[in-house]
Design brief:
The chain is α/β, with parallel strands linked by helices and 404 residues long. The protein contains 15 helices and 14 strands.
Length: 404
């Protein structure tokens, strides 16, 4: 853990499994991580992948099954010898809360061990305050925990929080008095929320959390190095190297919104100034439209096509230049784009980014493959929920690669 209480996702030196009894906790995490990434596997498959002895794997699998974290699948017959029995993660093995604190909305979700969202509570606001956040969280925890049976409530394993770091610095940008956001400077929101419950609570930058959700829950598992963009009220992002989210010393690495890009009127602006939903909201308001629907749900937006196309073009151009800049530093294989966006809008944005990237001089750079991310609008809240999951049940993704 960092001094700020942030889980560390950087590449770890762990290699393969160990047959020593003192490493059992690590080996159990390794098995759970491999099953999460690859799906149901037999004990012999696990032994082959990890290098653990068959006896050690049997002990681990029995323990995890006894703890309710694994389930047996149907026997696979047709080969010589005893039928192979694949083991899979139990969806009700553990439960997690993920809180997203956004500049225009807050959302709390409850997920199971597979990352399936079982329930959610959502609220919009003009701007977030620590007091309103704690009030929202208290009611949300009660409501969502109440959906679980008494037995399942005992399996709640933690709470994750995803929020913008140094949120007080954005007062002027979101057009509220600095005094309205000043309370965030003094409050320890992680501690405030930890006081509401008996579970461990973790905190991470919202864009990094969204990127982490892609690492833990994403289906694009063939990509181990990628640049990630999430478009919310402000655009943010993350960097994944060797399958692990890189957050840096302060936890704020991959702050892509600050990258300089060409402005729509000439000169240079930051990416955040052309590729954030803030500009779309302002354009809708300037045309006397209602922008509140943007923050209620990522679906069903009724936006004037001219306004939408203008915003999409500017956002795509800015992101394309940001990709070119980042790719000159790290040889990313792919760029994944996600956001609080309707599915068709995200698809359109990715297509325009590809077109813009083709018009940029990339001599000396191998262009990355720009594609849609796989988690979707819930990425920030799911990323928050993945923090306690990762801390308790997973190993660093790079260890899985080395074990393969």
């Amino acid at each position: 853990m960092t001094p700020e209480g942030l889980p560390i996702f950087d590449a770890a030196p762990g290699l393969r499994g160990s047959n020593q009894s003192g490493m059992r906790a690590y080996n159990e995490r390794l098995v759970l991580s491999i099953l999460r990434q690859r799906g149901p596997l037999s004990k012999s498959d696990i032994a082959r992948i990890t290098g653990l002895s068959a006896q050690t794997v049997s002990v681990i699998m029995r323990s995890l099954e006894s703890d309710g974290l694994l389930l047996k699948g149907d026997p696979v017959r047709g080969k010589v010898g005893q039928p192979s029995v694949p083991m899979r993660l139990a969806e009700d093995g553990a439960f997690f809360f993920g809180l997203k604190i956004g500049r225009r909305s807050a959302e709390l979700i409850l997920t199971n061990f597979l990352g399936t969202v079982l329930g959610r509570v959502h609220a919009t606001h003009r701007f977030p305050t620590p007091e309103s956040t704690v009030t929202f969280m208290r009611a949300g925890l009660d409501q969502l925990a109440g959906q679980l049976s008494p037995a399942d409530r005992l399996r709640i394993s933690g709470v994750g929080i995803a929020m913008p770091f140094q949120i007080w610095d954005w007062a002027r940008t979101i057009n509220v008095p600095a005094s309205a956001m000043a309370a965030w400077r003094e409050v320890d929101i992680r501690a405030e929320i930890a006081a509401l419950c008996d579970w461990p609570v973790y905190l991470q930058n919202d864009a990094s959390a969204a990127c982490g959700a892609e690492v833990v829950f994403g289906s694009d598992v063939d990509v181990r190095e990628f640049l990630y963009f999430y478009l919310g009220y402000f655009i943010g992002g993350g960097v994944v190297l060797n399958g692990s989210l890189y957050t840096g010393v302060t936890g704020n690495a991959g702050a892509l919104g600050t990258l300089p890009v060409p402005g729509p009127s000439g000169g240079t602006v930051q990416l955040i100034d052309v590729a954030s939903l803030q500009q779309l909201e302002e354009a809708i308001r300037a045309a006397d439209g209602d922008s509140e629907a943007l923050w209620q749900s990522p679906d069903g937006w009724a936006v004037d096509p001219a306004i939408m196309n203008r915003w999409l073009d500017r956002a795509a151009s800015g992101i394309a230049y940001a990709i070119a800049s980042a790719s000159s530093v790290i040889d990313f294989r792919a760029v994944l784009v996600d956001g609080w966006l309707p599915a068709q809008m995200r698809r359109d944005l990715v297509a325009r980014i590809r077109t813009c990237l083709e018009s940029i001089n990339l001599a000396g750079i191998i262009p990355p493959d720009v594609r849609e991310a796989t988690v979707g609008p819930d990425a920030r809240a799911l990323g928050a929920a993945s923090l306690p999951l990762s801390e308790r049940f997973l190993v660093d993704p790079s260890a899985i690669l080395k074990a393969s």
